[in-house]
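Quick log. Single chain, no ligands specified.
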Amino acid sequence: QVQLVESGGGLVQAGGSLRLSCAASGRTFSTVGMGWFRQAPGKEREFVAALTWSVGNTYYADSVKGRFTISRDNAKNMVYLQMNSLKPEDTAVYYCAARPRYSDYRRDDEYDYWGQGTQVTVSS
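-> predicted structure:
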């Protein structure tokens, strides 16, 4: 099992920044990559960003490319999501997730482990 705990959410004005953190514990060696997803009220959960533990390849949704940065600290089993130039449409609950295999990182059903989520609210 892998346990994931997110932190760093909050309320910020449009144009501001937040950094989300995800602490991974347990059998993290059984995972190959991490992802961030988000879910706004009344909407489906959507892919935000992903990376692989080993090489550190990163991937982004078009809606956040150039504004968000995903990164990792392998020694600490931490994953981060730096969010800059935030927009009201970025408001959502953000989830950290871990996937055990090399697969389509954009699909949430490829991720076996999920955190509890952290709320991000961007005011206009």
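The mean pLDDT is 95.
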